[in-house]
Known about the structure:
mainly alpha, elongated
Amino acid sequence: MGQANATLPDDHRPSFESDSVWDVAELNAPVLEVISTDHSDLTHWIDALEISLCKRFKNYTVEGGVFEKRILQTCHDLKSCFHDHVVASRLLDDLAQNLHDRFEAVHRPACDPGDAYDTWAATDDLNDAVEAKHRAVAFTPPSGPTTLSRMWSLGRFLYSRSIHLRGHQDIENVVQIARWSLDLSPDWAPDMATRLAMLGASLHIRFKRLGVLQDVEDSISATRQALKRTHESHPERSSHQRNFAIALHTRFLRLGVVSDLEDAILEMRRALQLCFNHHSDVPDLLETLGTLLHCRYMHMGKLEDLESSISLHRRAMIMTPRYHTDMVTRLGSLAISLHSRFQTLDDPQDIEDAISFIEDANELVPSPDHPERPIRLDSDGLFKQSRYARFGNLWDIEAAMDAKNLANSYTREGHPDKPMRLMSLGISLQARFEHLGEIEDLQDAIFKKNRAVELTPDGHIHKSAWTSSLGISLTSRFRRSEDIDDLERAISLHRTAVQRTPQDHPLTPDHLENLAIALHERFLHLGELEDLKSAIDLKRRAVDLTPEGHFKKAIRLNSLAMSLGRHFMLSHTFGDLQESISVNRRALVLAPDNHPIRSAILFDLGLSREQLFKLTHDPSTIAEAEAAYKASALHSFGAPSSRLRSAIHWAETARKYSSNSLPIEAPLLTAHACIMNTLREVVWPGYGIRRRFEKSAEFGALTGVAVSTALSAGALLEALEWLERGRTLIWSEAASWRRPLTELAMQHPDDADFLKLILRDLRYFGFSHNVPNIPIGKAERTGREPGLSDSDYIRPTYVEYEDKVKEIRSLPGFKDFMIPSTSKELVARFSAQATGSVVFLNIHASRCDAITLTPDGALRLVELPDLTLRYATSLRRMWVDSLRARGVRLQRGDRATAHVQDEGDGLNDSERVLRYLWLWVVHPVLQALNLMKTDINVPLPHITWCPTGPLTQLPLHAAGIYTKGAPRVFDFVVSSYTPSLSALQRCRDGMRAPSEVPKVLLVTQANTPRPGLSPLPCVKNETAAICRHLPSGEEHAIMEREQATERGVLSLIGNYTWVHFACHGSQNKRDPSRSAFELHDGPLTLSALMTAVTDNAEMAFLSACQTAMGDESIAEESMHLAAGMLTLGFKAVVATMWSINDADAPVVVEAYYRRLIELRSHGEVGRGQTGAAYALHEAVARLREKVGEGRFERWVPFVHFGV
């Protein structure tokens, strides 16, 4: 055996420093000389050891306590024999053995964690055993008869510590000691097989940690020699066979040589045949054979291998005591096999059992840095991702991401498992992207998958699968960016995966399907028919190679049907369409009722049946298409976006193709009800705010279609219901996060307290854009972690909120908890306290209407026949152009070129818009409400406008014919606005009685430091005007100049009932949530305002520019500062539709506050009112008198929201 270690130093004696590879020479005379002349080091060590042992003895179990007397006596004896090296070395050797035996007795066998002493005690036993053995070797003469045995024993102890503590240097030293001992041992030595097995095992461990292929080759060679030297009857034979099989399996996973796997399985079967059932190695052998059979199933697809694997793992688990250290591995292996069966047979019980077992395993992992921890965490993440993919519970994908992130963090750079961890994390990110559409998830998935592929050497058994997975993500990114380079690279990666995977490999159908999908995408982009034909051929092969009974069979059949249908649209070959329908039907038969894929299959079946109807005009086919769309839309397991798509097709089919002899209102209303119910799921509150804006803009028009359909059917209550559901989706949800929990707190205070913390986090993260660090929830939020997006914060919080609300709804009396009020309920509450009418304006290409709600709770339809969507859009454009001509695009305070046009086309355009608004919209409504008369002895009636579409950016409150003696709206009514009926009712409910003595916060900024913002000299006059009319003696506050900061305002705003902003304001068109008040240290954005707590809020005056402008791309959301203040809890808000003249603000403000205080002091403000609308009406009239009625840009921008 001399050649085994030819490169080591001649004396073959490694040194034993704990933090480096031990130098052989350091075990010679110098160490002995130091010990023989100075006993202080050993004395100090023995004293410290005795103290440590006494502490540990307090926690002894029965198993650990039996060693106490022997260990302490040995320590005592050592103190009296330092000069006798022979005796000292023997005693140290005994001490080491007893410490190691106690470690083995307490750490490894079955023992309840409640009775076993702490993990640190077991670790100390092992460390002290290694130290004692090291000292025993040092006291042993280099040429003594016990030198080799003690050195070998030290190697075994180091091996134990390398397994327990994962020490890299320990395993390096074990390898050296094993080679050294083999070099010194003759071939006929009786324990040669044991030494060879130790070398093989230590080399295998080193490969698992460092990934050097030669270590596996040497491990196999050493273990094979150990087997040759071990008789079949030897008790260690089965252990050597197991190690040999494991090493072969490892090489198979690295190189993919099937004979290695077959040889490993054969070796394990032989080992089991030689063992009796009571043999201590049987559980290990069962588990190893189960793992090998599972591996063969994964690479060859034989279901009997998987069933055998599960059976073997169950037997191994049953034979292993609950708290045995090997139980973690037993549970994990069984869970992995059950997960594989779930992926094949789609039995939900398998995935539930797999998750249960892996969670059990995670609980049994003794410490966070245990080597099993990242393995089991990654499995936990994998299983929960699979359950998410099957049932769509977003909480599962969040839990999967958490587990996989932890697993990745526990796996160091350079570890052989690092590529696997990265790929696993990338796959979960891809899955979450497919559900939520967050581009950050996709980018991160591509980054991690790319790194995994780069770190994986060619020839690695997983290289092809990981390459294909990267291709999937690149295809997804192409769909978003249309960057053809992404698609070309994806196709190349998929081709590589197909070429490198054997035809009979279970993953071959996946690779074929992935390549086909990428080619289909290229066809859609470039129109090359050959790509489509190739995609169809590849999909046919994938279907043929997928075993019957495999759950992916239905998915692949549906994919093939989709491509055949696309080919029919080009070829017009009837056979393509017939085959598409036939294949689709096969897919539908195979798809489980509770599988998400069923919704997609039904949708594709609807498309093909609709195509067939266009050819045959057979009424039964369009009826089948409509039925398929309906079933797809109502399939509760389908993704929200898929169900919405199906519901839209269902409605369109019902509208276009239903028989004229049958009433279409019922199916149409049902379809639109489905659309509106699904819309809130699609604009999911758990998205980041940008994503919610995108979704709202994408689907906002659906509300108009639904409302128009309901109005055509005479269903006014449904129309109002859908207006409520489809408008201000973002604001409505945000407002619900501020709902009082009074009743819940009275009956279930713990639940209420917990929910309050979640709601605070939602308010903070719901509009998150690096908002200030303010204390919320259980701890202070201290900024973002690098690389995390908005949705990384809001998403898990909202999932937690949904789960908690679901739990509360199961409590007696809380089944409707946090469910929005229906329109019927809102109307009833409205009529109980209303003093004016509300007018809802719906604008759609098919029709334009007003729905009026009067104080008696009556709903009435007012058709607007002269108004069309095209006209409304033209009016908005004309109005914006006229304002630009008048200079209002400039900021408040700009003087140089503002208001340069007093006459000409700009003025005429303004008058024309206001005239048409009167004729087409306002006058018909006022007539219908019988409000076209005046009585100077009676206050003007109040009307609240709730416009949609283009009308949200048009001044309905200024509509009129501006010639002498002609009507203007303000002559007949006092106008207000509301984003929705529910928003208005929240204001009414919160305004039980006006505050008698309000506390006012004034936030002013006359000279904003930010460059480009002009001074506002009139802010000083505005402040003085407010102060003149406020009741004296109250604790009002003025924040001005450097006091008016973002953090300062947020910290104080909740302490005051009235708030007045006098500063610059801005509407951010790119991101409306960044619309802001410009303060001393920067913008106070809408998103930051949403974090404030304003339980006492009553009124706000936003004397700044563009605070009620909104964004035309998401008009239905009323995304401006005024609506945000309503959501924040203010009951009345005065705002501006565009930039105001600096000199006009003091005029309006003084008249407003004077009248407001008068109304309140005279008792003219009733319950559920604030007086703000009437005060503003008179204030604007004062400004109109001063600047002239024709200066629309001066007086029209001031508007009132709320009550």
